[in-house]
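Hi all, posting the design record for the shared folder.

TITLE: backbone redesign
STEP: 1 of 1
STRUCTURE INPUT:
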């Protein structure tokens, strides 16, 4: 019974930590965070999600950095924008992917 309680608390702690990362990602850059959520959902159904998440994070962050000047969000591509975009996309994509995986394992 103690082991079950400990496993349950670990799951709740991981969900709370994932929520903190997602909120931080939305505060940092919400368009990339939304793209990260979509990436996390899509990668959940792919056979090699743990490989496609990092590759997708880099691609989404780079694509957003190239597209943002067209919408007037930035003046041009910049390394620091790409770097912060990595955190925004990875914070949502990996958190959602891991939370869904842990929830599936728990049920």
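Okay, here is what came back for every position:
SEQUENCE:
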């Amino acid at each position: 019974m103690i082991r079950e309680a400990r496993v349950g608390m670990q799951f709740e702690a991981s969900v709370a930590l994932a929520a903190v990362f997602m909120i931080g990602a939305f505060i940092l850059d919400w368009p990339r965070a939304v793209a990260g959520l979509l990436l996390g959902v899509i990668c959940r159904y792919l056979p090699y999600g743990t490989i496609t998440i990092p590759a997708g994070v880099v691609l989404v962050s780079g694509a957003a950095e190239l597209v943002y000047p067209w919408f007037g969000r930035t003046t041009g591509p910049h390394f620091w924008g790409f770097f912060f975009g990595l955190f925004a996309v990875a914070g949502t994509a990996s958190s959602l992917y891991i939370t869904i995986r842990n929830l599936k394992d728990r049920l």
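COMMENT: The two ends are 17 Å apart (CA to CA).
Let me know if anyone wants the other runs.
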